[in-house]
Known about the structure:
- This protein is α+β, with helices and mostly antiparallel strands and 275 residues long.
- 30% of the residues lie in helices and 35% in strands.
- It contains 3 helices and 18 strands.
- A hairpin with a 2-residue loop joins strand 2 and strand 3.
Amino acid sequence: MRKIFSLSSFFYVLLSLVLAGPVLSAEGHISVSEDEAVILFLGGEVTVIKAGGEVAAGKGMKLTSGDGLRTGASSWAELALGEGGENILKVKENSSLELTQISPAEINLLKGELRALVEALNRDEPFEIKTPVSVCGVRGTGWDTAYDGTEVIVDVYEDEVFFSAISKDGSMEDPLIKEGKRGILEDPSRPIRITDIPPGKMREWKSWKEGFNERRGRGSGTGGGDALMDKAQKAGSKAKDMMKGKEGIFEKNDQDDMDERATEQQEDDNKVGYP
């Protein structure tokens, strides 16, 4: 007799998969030491520059102090820096940088645009992004730094960032750019101009941060994996409700299936002369 696969059993298997998938990815831990950076995600043409030459970047590739990274058109990479990978650097298209030092972080932006999401630093440990004419950094925030060879633009999305212009005599202006503000350095000999961030940039930041947290399995809130766990629990509850509501239908389908197969078996027995 052929085995009968229960529809209700299938549904329980499906429910288990729905619950297990998000839970397995909710931890979001990154294996990286204090003096390393790791490429988490990337797209397009991304190149890593090491002392021995250039190599194509790949997901999971680790970088150390002195390494460089370059992105082509329509290309990007997201890196985690330092122990636990809590500090994130997004390298946008047509950008080039050198990881001068990873802990404490000192990134030399040669050209292009970087996005930093800094969430874990020691009290005396800065996170700095430098260009030939400026330096900016924080001890915990989110911001973009763009440099085109002449002008530097700093957009601050969370908390505040110090933004210093390095003048020809070596002196430095050190204003704070607060959340929602943009600092523009057009000439190191002139003061940094501060204005509002364009609304579209703030929306793009929030969308990116939410998407990035989902990619690394931490949900979109500050509770880490809690948001993802809530989503899993809701999916599980919905599946259970569906199971409860459909339970009678499954049982009826199973019984009808067994009755049909029993009738087929009896007809086969009659053909060969069994009582």
